[in-house]
UniProtKB/TrEMBL annotation:
Keywords: GTP-binding, Hydrolase, Nucleotide-binding, Repeat, Ribosome biogenesis. It comes from Sphingomonas qomolangmaensis. GTPase that plays an essential role in the late steps of ribosome biogenesis. GTP 1 binds at residues 10-17, 57-61, 120-123. This is GTPase Der.
Length: 455
């Protein structure tokens, strides 16, 4: 059974994301004194004194037209409330009640969800009068909290416990190399490449806020979903939307720096990363830098040209991008390049199928016997050089890790192998074992035996 879900509701800047981070135990949500930092709803597993539940951080509730960005943020808050088993209504004990607090209270009173009222920033005596004032909102007595300092957490536990303990918890251990395990799939790219629109189309719902304004997404948002493939098999996916990554020189605002850092953490968390390009703008240097970062982190990479439905000179565009990728990503040839449209849904099933196939190659383990049979043939076909007249003698190779595939080559003076020969071995191994374009790491271990004097 699923974990019970708690949604944090409140006006902007009352400390919702700070409380979210406190309950999750990590700084997942961006926090800043500027109101309106959180725009999409964000979910994570929370742990509170032995209670396990799903927590949703929401955008600040504002009374704006749905066509505006604040209005679309409010729609996301409504969607979070629809999913929740409990609403945690947060007010600011320093500022006292505001008309927006009272409007939220009226909204929550008619919702079919139990409400726990909490007054945040309640440290110090000055907050006491605001806590008493919050009793007028028509809920049970407010819990006095300080999300920043961790005060009042025991009282929050007592309030949440009856709801959390209603559902029986199941803990499922997954083998990370199991082909049926949940696929952690991150979507990255420059601002306005259409990442959130693409994910909304995959989910077939307006799960993420989209619009013409650049930089709407700030947090990395993870969404669990089930995709039914062409064989009618359900495949679990964790989709991760990320903030757009501009050139470092253009990233000036503190919030954007935090957003980019958050996107890079999402890459670390993911198994497969989709780099989304805007087909109306083609490939830029920043795209290659993002792709290189993904590969350096050892993640499997898929590149998708989005907005293909409005691309001009499609054939020449595709061939031009493919050629530039082969030249710009010399360390990994043949990264999958697909065409998709977040607006029409074109190519999305192919994208997901390729993502699962790429993860399988990224997770594959090759037996030592098969490796060394290939290794002997590769060495015989192209013997290593002898720098300074001293022979390099590779002895054997083994795979010590997957995800990404990592191999260790043992022998005499193998640490002197030139980079060109290492590339030869990696490329030959890719071809022999059908590894595709996933990153492959080759480590060299030269003999430390003082009696080993092979010439």
């Amino acid at each position: 059974m699923p974990l019970p879900t708690v949604a944090i509701i409140g006006r902007p800047n009352v400390g919702k994301s700070t409380l979210f981070n406190r309950l999750v135990g990590k700084k997942l949500a961006l926090v800043d004194d500027q109101p309106g930092v959180t725009r999409d709803r964000r979910e994570a597993d929370a742990h509170l004194l032995g209670l396990d539940f799903r927590i949703i951080d929401t955008a600040g509730f504002e009374n704006e037209d749905i066509a505006t960005l604040p209005g679309r943020m409010r729609a996301q808050t409504q969607a979070a409330l629809d999913e929740a088993d409990v609403a945690l209504f947060l007010v600011d004990a320093r500022d006292g009640l505001t008309p927006i607090d009272e409007e939220i209270a009226r909204w929550l009173r008619v919702a079919d969800v139990p409400v726990i009222l909490a007054a945040n920033k309640a440290e110090g005596r000055l907050a006491q009068s605001s806590i008493y004032e919050a009793m007028s909102l028509g809920f049970d007595d407010p819990i006095a909290l300080s999300a920043e300092h961790g005060e009042g957490i025991a009282d929050l536990f007592d309030a949440l416990r009856p709801y959390i303990e209603r559902l029986e918890q199941e803990i499922e251990e997954e083998d990370p190399e199991d082909p049926d395990a949940i696929l952690k799939l991150a979507v990255v790219g420059r601002p306005n490449a259409g990442k959130s629109t693409l994910i909304n189309r995959i989910l077939n719902q307006e799960r993420l806020i989209t619009g013409p304004e650049a930089g709407i997404t700030r947090d990395s948002i993870a969404i669990d979903w089930v995709w039914t493939d062409a064989e009618n098999k359900d495949r679990r996916v964790r989709l991760i939307d990320t903030a757009g990554m501009r050139k470092r020189a253009k990233v000036q605002e503190k919030l954007e720096k935090l957003s980019v850092a958050d996107a890079l953490r999402a890459v670390d968390f993911a198994e497969v990363v989709v780099l989304l390009l805007d087909a109306t703008k083609g490939l830029e240097v920043q795209d290659l830098k993002i792709a290189d970062k993904v590969l350096q982190e050892g993640r499997a990479l898929v590149i998708a040209l989005n907005k293909w439905d409005v691309a001009e000179n499609a054939s020449s565009l595709f061939n031009g991008v493919k050629g530039a990728l082969d030249e710009g990503l010399a360390q990994v040839k043949g990264v999958p390049l697909l065409t998709v449209s977040g607006a029409t849904g074109k190519g999305l099933d192919v994208l997901l199928r390729v993502a699962f196939e790429t993860r399988a190659a990224w997770s594959r383990r090759t037996s030592t016997g098969a490796l060394n049979r290939w290794f002997e043939k590769a060495i015989e076909a192209n013997p290593p050089p002898a720098p300074g007249g001293k022979r390099i003698k590779p002895r054997y190779i083994t795979q010590n890790k997957t995800r990404p595939p990592t191999f260790v080559l043992f022998g005499t003076r193998v640490d002197l192998l030139p980079e060109s020969y290492r590339r030869y071995l990696v490329n030959s191994m890719r071809k022999e074992f059908d590894m595709g374009a996933v990153p492959v790491r080759l480590m060299l271990r030269a003999s430390s035996n003082p009696f080993d004097h092979d010439k």
